[in-house]
Amino acid sequence: MRVLVTGAAGFIGSTLSLRLLARGDEVLGVDNLNDYYDVTLKQSRLDRLTPQAGFSFAKISIEDRPALERAFADFKPERVVNLAAQAGVRYSLENPYAYVESNLVGFINILEACRHGRVEHLVYASSSSVYGANRKLPFSVQDSVDHPVSLYAATKKANELMAHTYSHLYGLPTTGLRFFTVYGPWGRPDMALFLFTRKILAGEPIDVFNHGHHTRDFTYIDDIVEGVIRTLDRVATPDPDYDPLHPNAATSSAPYRLYNLGNSHPVQLFRYIEVLEDCLGRKAERNLLPLQPGDVPDTSAEVAELMADTGYRPDTPVEEGIRRFVDWYRDYYGV
Q1: Which of 31, 70, 71, 90 has the highest CB neighbour count under 10 A?
Q2: pLDDT tens sequence across 268-309
Q3: Is 152 a catalytic residue?
Q4: Which of 91, 124, 131, 152 is catalytic?
């Protein structure tokens, strides 16, 4: 297939693109290579893709509508995976407009391009952050998600609503994936595992929020990519059992689906740090801090719908995933 992947120089996008190319798909990667974090790392990810047969790259922002329209017109994608977004919960408190421009303006540009380009299926990144103030665990796609606690989460919920509108009005098949704390080789430097590893190896104290007591459904990168591919290949269709008097939040009478993509085995942050210490062979000096604004105490994914529809659930244990990350980190940075 011809697959357009936005955010192709990103953590998930670059790994996904490699998998698609390996199975014979033609991939157009789109990314603006912004400086939210180390551009050198983004370029290194891209350097793994550019020699591959079937890969082409367009350096554009999804909020640049004319440039995006040209890319769609030239490449004529059959399917699209939208991973480009302004990420990060805490940064949304500092620069809210970045989230409006990329996650809202950029996403409507994607929807319009898919609509006019007659794309067969749009898969897009949502986030576990949409569960916001919810405390019932595990989080289910059947749950109400009307109480976000960060602007980042609000934009991701807005993406789900916007996608449903296009599925309903124009018959555009869309599938939203709520990612749960993705980690692994080639990860993001602003995420905990990357920050902790760098500081522990440098002999610096690490900031441990919520005094290390919160839990996260850490999900390994290869599991995330497998989930993306499984759902990309299963084009969303109308739910024949959808009842508007008793609506299902994850399906519709339109070709629309939502799935959680998480490991379903939450790990306390203290345990996560202990595993990292074992892999590094060093102890961390911990600076214990309160929960940060916009963060939530716990996340846990219910993946029953994903399993029922695709036969797949993520299952890489953190002990294995962290070991692979540390091996990559030492090799990439020569530590």
Answers
A1: 31
A2: 999 999 999 999 999 999 999 998 887 888 999 999 999 999
A3: yes
A4: 152
